[in-house]
Automatic annotation (TrEMBL), chains A, B, C, D, E, F:
InterPro entries: 4-OT, 4-OT-like_dom, Tautomerase/MIF_sf. GO terms for molecular function: isomerase activity. Residues 2-60 form the 4-oxalocrotonate tautomerase-like domain. The keyword Isomerase applies. It is an enzyme of class 5 (isomerase). The active site is at 2 (proton acceptor). This is Tautomerase. Keywords: Isomerase. Its EC number is 5.3.2.-. SUPFAM superfamilies: Tautomerase/MIF.
Length: 66, 66, 66, 66, 66, 66
């Protein structure tokens, strides 16, 4: 019955990659805690690089600085 | 003063339905806990079906399987 | 398949009141959007009044001011 | 290492304003708690006014009422 | 730079199991999306069974019903 | 009307420090975006170091390694 929220920057993750994150996270909860996969929910949020900051800078700026 | 976050898949909820969720949730907190509706906040997130997983599968795939 | 997170201050909500919030929210999603209640998840977070602010003040201070 | 999530209505915040929120929040955590800014993450969610409710009404409706 | 929040019921997960969830989730984001593990944050919330509902019932009640 | 959630590790933040985070964050939203402080909500979550991971390690382990 776990609920997992994964937040990543919106930089081109494909539907296949997102499906793999969902599959992998669900399996991890089965393997580590014996959780029921049927009621395990995983929600992925993709966030614009203007809206994500680390070290006080937006990712937009960090990407430009290389 | 409660804060409520409702996450649903983005599958065509109308503005009227979303207004009804906001009204209903706020009223529930008044009725059950006597909360002040004026500072009760409800935020609805609509999530793409590619980004929502249950049972290790994306909702996109589950909808295709019917 | 919705996921709902309700945040309230920790000020003595009883198990019965919390069960009523869970029941009511789940029913609301059935009534308004036709969601499947069996996979609808509701999580309630109770937050210390020192850790909740509104209007720039903690709820602890607001309660003292009456 | 803190994580901050700021939710605002989507009503035209500019990239500069969002960068300022990220910078200011990160600095606040340095000043108040001595946190390491390099691993401080700030994520801003902009939410449609149809999806944000306060006082049981959507912000869309509240804006129309002035 | 991803942020992951895992919510589970508070039912005795050990520090080792939680460390394994953190390790596994971080590795998954490296493997699937090539994310930098050094800035990948995972936060686990353990929620009382009275505060977690599924199917309109608290987990406390569901556990009693077996 | 913004909502801000600040997550920090539970390592002894005082009520005064938490009040300062709430005051500072609220003021930042007034200064940068002209938001109404009276409906600005700030919630602080303090998370056990066993439940917070960065770089694939729990903060408990990182603190031991100095």
């Amino acid at each position: 019955m776990p609920y997992v929220n994964i937040k990543i920057t919106r930089e081109g993750a494909t539907p296949e990659q997102k499906a793999e994150l969902i599959r992998g996270t669900t399996q991890l909860l089965v393997d580590v805690l014996g959780k029921n996969p049927r009621t395990t929910v995983v929600v992925i949020d993709e966030v614009d690089t203007d809206n994500w900051g680390i070290g006080g800078e937006t990712v937009t700026v960090l990407r430009q600085q290389g």
